[in-house]
UniProtKB/TrEMBL annotation:
The chain crosses the membrane at residues 15-38, 45-62, 74-100, 163-182, 212-233, 245-274, 286-308. It holds the Pfam family BPD_transp_2. CDD domains: TM_PBP1_LivH_like. It comes from Haloferax elongans ATCC BAA-1513. PANTHER family: ABC TRANSPORTER ATP-BINDING PROTEIN, BRANCHED-CHAIN AMINO ACID TRANSPORT SYSTEM PERMEASE PROTEIN LIVH. Coiled coil: none annotated. One of its GO terms (cellular component) is plasma membrane. The keyword Transport applies. This is Branched-chain amino acid ABC transporter permease. Keywords: Amino-acid transport, Cell membrane, Membrane, Transmembrane, Transmembrane helix, Transport. GO terms for molecular function: transmembrane transporter activity. It is found in: Cell membrane.
């Protein structure tokens, strides 16, 4: 592999990693921007999505022919994506239940209550995962290998996993869909208005309670979707929610608390720069995202794009 091919490969790894981070951080950003709640259990919703995805995708892929030809490979890919979408849909009522049962009573209370509650939910969800799926890591290796057998970048002479290309494409579609939703739809504008000025939104007749439930369900949807998409190349394990949660905090701090546009730019920035750093110096894997955050905050303490009011 030439130097240019190595550079392109690591850059693509960074972009793919950035889009997965954005899928996770977008839900956390929306919840923080609207509900003003720092949800420590968000990483466990990501893990729950991976476990549910393991069950659903594993079942659905068992119903179709093995990916031995191009047509069966494409069918296999479609089934995996369908399983990820179903997983995200299942996480929606989970989010609704958590918001209406646990979060609604603590709105407006001291942040300590939020931290204690969300940390407790983190532990509860982790134990639920352990109770249902057991303590051993789970993996969908067949799904990952089946999709990677589809020739995509190999046609241009680049060796790169097809599944990672699929995640990049899905990430682009998701970003476009989210910005369209928040800028072009009535519901999205109501959510933005609630984020910018909750009292004014209430005064003009917005049902903030329903908006809060919708927002939390949306956050759970994207956490579950990210978990299901991230599953094939990795293991579903009881500890898999911790690292994405920490990196999501890094992303939203770099982008600006509550800024969706900032979360997108920051996720790609962290993804690409951290992968470049690891390429050049592997021990930098843990420090790279935090070094990026420190540099950005030294230049712009409020983050790259500020708050939801600057979303544009």
């Amino acid at each position: 592999m030439t130097g240019l091919e190595t550079f392109v490969t690591h850059t693509l790894h960074g972009i793919q990693y950035g889009f997965v981070l954005f899928l996770i951080a977008s839900g956390l950003t929306i919840v923080l921007g609207i509900l003003d709640v720092l949800n420590l259990a968000h990483g466990e919703l990501f893990a729950l999505g991976a476990y549910v995805g393991f069950t659903i995708i594993g079942y659905l892929t068992g119903l179709v022919a093995p990916p031995t030809t191009l047509s069966t490979q494409l069918v296999f890919l479609g089934v995996v994506l369908l399983g990820a979408a179903l997983t995200a849909a299942i996480l929606v009522p989970v989010g609704v239940f958590l918001e209406t049962t646990f979060f609604k009573p603590i709105y407006g209370r001291d942040e300590v209550y939020q931290i204690v509650l969300t940390f407790a939910l983190l532990l509860i969800i982790k134990d639920v995962n352990k109770l249902i799926w057991g303590p051993s890591p789970l993996r969908l290796q067949d799904a990952y290998g089946g999709i990677n057998s589809i020739p995509v970048l190999s046609r241009v002479g680049l060796t790169y996993p097809t599944y990672n290309v699929v995640i990049i494409v899905i990430g682009l579609v998701t970003v476009a869909g989210l910005f369209w939703f928040f800028n072009r739809t009535k519901t999205g504008r109501i959510i933005r208005a609630t984020a910018i000025n909750r009292e004014m939104a209430t005064a003009i007749g917005v049902n903030t309670g329903r908006t809060f439930t919708l927002v939390f369900a949306l956050g759970a949807f994207f956490a579950g979707f990210a978990g299901a998409l991230a599953l094939p190349p990795r293991f579903a394990s009881l500890d898999m929610g911790a690292n994405p949660l920490v990196l999501s905090f890094v992303v939203i701090v770099i982008g600006g608390l509550g800024s969706l546009r900032g979360a997108f730019v920051a996720a790609l920035l962290v993804g690409v720069l951290s992968r470049w750093a690891i390429w050049q110096y592997p021990p930098a894997e843990l420090a790279a995202p935090f070094a990026i955050m420190a540099i950005v905050l030294l230049v712009r303490p409020e983050g790259l794009f500020g708050t939801w009011g600057e979303m544009g």
